[in-house]
Amino acid sequence: MGKTHEHIDGRLRAFIEAQPVFFTATAPLDGEGTINLSPKGLTGSFAVIDERTVAYLDFAGSNAETVAHLRENGRITLMWCAFQGPPNIVRVHGRGEPVFRDDARWETLTAHFPGIDGAAHGLRAIVVVTAELIRDTCGYGVPFMAYDKDRDLHAKRFAREDDASLDAYFAGKDHIATSIDGLPGLPLPLPPLPRPDA
Q1: What is the separation of C-alpha 20 from the centre of its chain, rounded to a whole number of angstroms?
Q2: CA–CA separation, 90 vs 77, rounded Å?
Q3: β-strand pairing of 22-26 with 36-40
Q4: Which ranges constitute the DSSP H helices of 127-180?
Q5: What is the rounded distance in angstroms from the CA atom of residue 68 to the CA atom of residue 179?
Q6: SS3 call for 146
Q7: 178-187: buried (b, 16+ CB within 10 Å) or exposed (e) per residue?
Q8: Is 10 left (phi over 0), alpha (psi -120 to 50) or beta?
């Protein structure tokens, strides 16, 4: 029922690019540590970079577990489910890296997300994932669910922040600079977000 793929292309690429939501799973090396599972959405915040590399935008939020786990060990799994149409589940198991605002690759990577105003969402990192294992499975147990539209609450909340106030917001949260398990999370203070007109 399951199939392993060498590349993210063709039908497989079309499927994952069409899904309005996907999930990320990471964990610390410590067997007693906290496993993290996160939903990701927002149209235009995911991109296929090449046939074995994908990336997504990491926006402002109240924790940074994925960033912390990737900084420690790099292990990540991404999952897409077909909630409409033929049943399907795709998983990309691989190695991830959070690329921060002051990284030399930032400008090149942000070009893959032309429809997103990073400043409006408090963009803090771009997570780049290199696939090591690409699999799809039947998804027969996944229910049908309808997608209506993206929520606009995230942009409404963070569009009123500038770099300084966003940094203060992060500094006031318990699990941004360090994870639930005490691992290094988002490096603070946050470097300024490069401006397109700069």
Answers
A1: 13
A2: 10
A3: antiparallel
A4: 153-158, 163-171
A5: 6
A6: coil
A7: ebbbebebbb
A8: left
Unique residue bearing structure tokens 């500094």: 171
Per-residue pLDDT, 194: 78
Q: How far apart are CA 125 and CA 88, in angstroms?
A: 29
In the chain, % of residues over pLDDT 70 = 97
Burial (0-12, 13-18, 19+ Cβ within 10 Å), 174: exposed
Q: How high is the mean pLDDT of the chain?
A: 95
Q: Domains in the chain and their CATH numbers? A: 3-171 (2.30.110.10)
Specify the amino acid at residue 185.
G
Structure tokens at 190: 């946050």
CA distance 177 to 63: 8
pTM comes to: 0.95
Which two structure tokens, joined as six digits, stand for 81?
């489910």
Residue of 64, 90, 88 lying closest to 77 (CA atoms): 90
Contact 52, 129 (CB under 8 A): no
DSSP 174: T
Measured CA to CA in angstroms, residue 85 lies from 100, 127, 134, 156 at distances of 36, 28, 21, 32
Position of tokens 């690409």?
A: 134
